[in-house]
Amino acid sequence: MSHFTYQDGVLHAERVALPDIAKAFGTPTYVYSKAQLLANFDGYAKPCAGRDALVCYAMKANSNLAILDLLAKQGAGFDIVSGGELQRVIAAGGDPGKVIFSGVGKTVAEIELALEKGILCFNVESIPELHRINEVAGRLAKRAPVSLRVNPNVDPKTHPYIATGLKASKFGVAFSDALDTYRQAAALAHLDVVGIDCHIGSQLLDDAPLLEALDKLIELIDTLAGEGIHIHHLDVGGGLGIDYGAGDGEPVPIAHYVERVFARVDAWRAEKYDGKPIKVVFEPGRSIVGNTGVLLMSVEFIKTGEEKNFCVIDAAMNDMARPALYQAWMDVKPVTPRDAGAVKYDLVGPVCESGDWLARDRDLAVEPGDLLAMMAAGAYGFTMASNYNTRGRPAEVLVDGDQVHLIRRRETADELFALETIVK
Ligand code: LLP
Questions:
Q1: Pocket around ligand 1 at a 6 A CB cut-off
Q2: What is the pTM of this model?
Q3: Which end of the chain is more exposed for a tag (fewer CB within 10 A), N or C?
Q4: 157: CA distance to ligand 1 center in Å?
């Protein structure tokens, strides 16, 4: 069930009409549904209940403090990729002891911060990184818990920009090098080898590639056990997709996927380890926040061209980069649909780039001043927004039943150049 529905001909977020939000906070504005967020998280959390499992929300998808706070209160851990994200977790009241740190380029300062805050694990992506973490841990007289991100060479069948588990990817350690890399990690004085992880890509509608990658990790854990390297947690990464309304199929329901992971893990542990459990970690981003948000925007002008008609809106590629960056198809709905007069439009923003479009060839009946909602914009929306063209980033609003909370106000022009200095 979606928490964005038409009620009396007007699109609502839970029980709040979107035009009321536009009136109060202007456009473009990201609008999130708390109920949808919690329902998605439950999809992971419910099958995990009573098990040694942790859902580390990949906060790069949406890192607003209000979202992080809600998830932390549900018991979520966090998958971070920078020191800044760790500081956000702490600012939102999250537990650093439930944080895993991914990414190929961790700096010395970031490693120091993570060790000082006592994170759960570093997901290490290369041998030089192992050495760097070992050195920093030694200097701080700490031990660093590490996991290796193994590249299982499974094709996730997704957009090349968001496929990460193939041999040609910059991410992770090649499957064929994993054993040797683990041996090297185990020999380093200040590291504790605790885990194994992978992340093969994003927006996967089918869970078959995810389960195939899981099988490869399981195989490796058995090999490592034979060498006396015992793995305490198995991190299956993120990647489960959402329905963008593009007609390319429905994603596997979250809980089904999680149950299938547990079924495989349990069968394996029963067969090889007398049923001794292993901690399972998930790193979902998009499937938790994607359909939790819409981008509310207004029609500025209708521009009729020789070959194309343009609907010029007040949101742009700087507010939502996915179409420009990945040619992503995002659904756009009129907030108050009109009965007649649909015309095919390209929806374009005011930014001075031909790549500044949010949707193409859409049949819409619209007039200047109308409100539109880009659906399923909650993941990789605001977090990828920029200030290009000196545009303040959108406001963010959280709806809870009939309550509306401004969780990030719109940026002002003054704020955009406040850090700059004129040279006298
Ligand atoms: N874990 C790691 C190590 C990751 O790199 C990512 C996403 C995730 C977990 C979460 O993946 P998810 O569950 O969201 O698929 N900006 C792109 C997506 C980039 C994904 C980057 N890594 C987009 O808008 O489609």
A1: 58, 61, 79, 102, 162, 199, 202-203, 237-240, 283-287, 322, 326, 380
A2: 0.97
A3: C
A4: 14
**Tokens 């659904």 belong to which residue?**
331
371 pLDDT band, cuts 50/70/90, is very high
Distance CA(57)–CA(47), nearest Å, equals 16
Name 343's bridge partners.
Answer: 364
Q: Where in the chain is the domain with CATH 2.40.37.10?
A: 4-31+291-416
In sequence order, the 6+-apart residues with CB closer than 8 A to the CB of 163 are 155, 156, 169, 200, 201
Q: Summarize pLDDT for 108-133 with one digit per residue, the tens.
A: 999 999 999 999 999 999 999 999 99
Atom of ligand 1 nearest to the CA of 239: 15
Q: In CATH, which of 1.10.287.70, 2.40.37.10, 1.10.760.10, 1.10.1040.10 is domain 4-31+291-416?
A: 2.40.37.10
CA of 224 to the centre of ligand 1 (A): 28
Catalytic machinery residues: 352
